[in-house]
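Q: what does this look like with flavin mononucleotide bound?
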Amino acid sequence: MNDKTKYEIMKNRELLKGYHAADVTAEETDQQQKLPSIPCLQTSIATDTIKLPTDYEHLPIKGTILDLIKNRESRRSYQDHPLSLLELSFLLWSTQGVRHFAGHKNPVTFRNVPSAGSRHTFETYLFINQVEGLKKAIYHYLPEHHELELWDERDDFDKELTDALCGQRFASSAPVLFVWASLPYRMEWRYGLKAAKYLLIDAGHVCQNLYLACESIGCATCALGAYDQDRLDDLLGFAPGPSFDRHYTCTIYAAPVGRQLPT
Ligand SMILES: Cc1cc2nc3c(=O)[nH]c(=O)nc-3n(C[C@H](O)[C@H](O)[C@H](O)COP(=O)(O)O)c2cc1C
């Protein structure tokens, strides 16, 4: 390992420990300076939204929590069969669904996954290949009213998506690919330099809930950290490179979903 790489590794380790120069950490966060935050929920860009069904009692949910934890594994082969809209809805609810709101001017959400300070920096994007009732396209989840909106109606993303996922074709060809993108300022507003660490920890909860929820309805998933940052961001329309824009957004994590193969 050359000295430059060692230096960058050390900077990453500093992030893990939350070490930063004392004069930087002494600065008040934007929240302490009483600056406004950005909304914790994105408003829809589309005129039409797709209401997601919530009659989860009709799902054949199986397994105790013991079974789900024991049987969860990363699965990279799926049935060539569409997911139902109810199954997709359940997976979205399990990973980012809102339980209640608090506050008026800029409400905070409380969801089915924990988040540091309940800042919830993630937005969920779906590359949909096979879901009953939805055409192939890119969608965005709107947790406020548990809806989907069409993010990009293009259906010719196969090659670009496979490239963006570093050739992981099992993921780009799955019935659905979940992509979680973060707006870090939602977290930085309160936690400043600690925000990066917290939002990465948050991502783990989201994906683990996806694993367990998939397991409970006979679906399969696999966490994906290997992807080309700029290509995946570009496919979703996010600007390349870091910037100080308060609405700066970048992808953090992804996971394909399909039905489990029969055993
Ligand atoms: C942060 C993270 C990133 C991962 N990235 C990938 C990936 O890009 N491709 C892949 O096939 N598996 C990926 N995995 C899945 C791991 O390879 C898998 O969890 C590991 O082999 C253990 O298997 P298990 O999940 O079945 O216990 C990732 C897992 C995590 C937690």
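The mean pLDDT is 95. Residues 164 and 228 are 5 Å apart (CA to CA).
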